[in-house]
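User: I'm writing a tutorial on reading structure tokens. Could you give me a worked example: one chain, its sequence, then its tokens, then a sentence or two explaining what the tokens reveal?
Assistant: Sure. Here is the example chain.
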Amino acid sequence: MTTLMNVSDLAQVLFVSTLQASDHPSPDQVRTIIEGRIRACHADLSDCTALVAQEAGDHPEAYASRMRWALCEAGRVRPSISLSL
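And here are its predicted structure tokens:
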């Protein structure tokens, strides 16, 4: 079964990863992080969604800039992410 995820889904996965914008990750690094996390949670993004909400509440000052970064990075790699779970 192939799982299709939109940019927003992928951005949430990236948002809760340990990867930072200051790391200046390559598209390959971003792709690897996203794919690994999605496989680890068997494409159930509810944990990621909950963590995004928690981070938004705990660190509202950093939420918008991190999510913008995550959306941008996810948009750059989305066409090349195809998961078979």
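What the tokens reveal: The chain is about 65% helix and 5% strand. Residues 2-80 form one domain.
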